[in-house]
């Protein structure tokens, strides 16, 4: 079978060619379709970035309006689907419910499944972007025993997401423009990140010609792990633990450096970024502003900043090139907005939908794609004869 390269964790193996996202990990550069992430975060909106990632170009005003209207029109979910989501225990982890919901979605839309028909894939794209918003808002509400709220088609994607998540049925709801803007930015920052664990999972599952929903449900599950998207929830747990143990970041950092009980500084380090994660730089600025505006500046932010300060000046972190990643400060913003820690990773997933969709579409349309099928290095027993159970 020729020469096999052993590369655990794919440290050095490219599995595809891609035109979607560019990262220079040494310089801390991130671009979607060539556009620098800071420009998009500053000037664009989440749906516009979704269109850019999926279709390759920024939309004209007409195209963006049509795309937004189409996504809005599909925001409602069938009653049976709502009932299905309602059957999970209220304290179920929302990532498990979210993956199940995305997986179940196409059973209600069997007309959206053909992976080789452009129009059908575009329908599935719009359905996923639209329903993911409804699903995420309901994930929050069902935890408190509250009903799913219906969409208001006249509002924007993020604006109506916040209304559907936090308002009372039939009550007028004014969103705070600072909050809308901050969440829009966060979703943009999470929208794609080339071949990370969840995205390569989406491509791998899709390479068997499994449908877009099945592939993305697998991506949601991959994202749930604490080394990946689950890190944002773990960061908050870590900060709270430090606070409850008397608020001594230096003592915690000693545990990390001594690798006591495998403790890691969550929200730090990255496989590709060996310089500051450019997303983290934007999030940190935003965290400061949002917490100040909402009057929710709390001690956890101080603890986080102290941890960062220690890390940036400590040989352990410097020599390993460990810097804050996108997950380090996001939880503090989500918490100030009113989300429980269990909701942080679903919010990451909501933001990542455009990236997963774009990457799956690029994969399915690339004639060079082959079914994902890694090789292995076998290190088990050599051949031996079966021994009858009585003789073992
Ligand atoms: N705290 C303490 N030590 C660390 C950390 C950390 N967060 N991250 C890496 N190290 C150490 C690690 O122990 C190893 O040291 P040594 O050579 O002495 O054994 C060295 O740095 C290299 O680490 P690695 O595990 O080989 O690096 P990796 O590229 O396989 O892992 C990572 C990358 C992100 C999984 C890892 O840095 C990590 O576990 N970070 C904490 C979890 C986290 O924040 N994840 C979010 C990633 S960014 C957004 C996302 O994907 O969701």
Descriptive key words:
mainly alpha, Citrate Synthase, domain 1, 2 domains
Characterization of the model:
This protein is mainly α and 392 residues long. It folds into two domains: 242 residues, Citrate Synthase, domain 1; 107 residues, Cytochrome p450-Terp, domain 2, CATH 1.10.230. The protein is built from 17 helices and three strands. The protein has a three-stranded antiparallel sheet. Strand 2 and strand 3 form a beta hairpin. Helix 8 packs antiparallel against helix 16. The protein is globular, with a radius of gyration of 22 Å. It binds carboxymethyl coenzyme *A. Carboxymethyl coenzyme *A (CMC) binds next to loops. Carboxymethyl coenzyme *A binds next to loops.
Termini separation comes to 36 Å
Quickly give the structural class.
Answer: mainly alpha
Regions with little confidence, pLDDT below 50 for 5+ residues: none
Q: Which hetero compounds are present in the coordinates?
A: carboxymethyl coenzyme *A
Return Rg in Å. 22 Å
Within CATH, the superfamily of the largest domain carries the name Citrate Synthase, domain 1
| Tally of DSSP helical segments | 17
Please give the share of residues in helix: 55-70%
Structurally, the number of domains stands at: 2
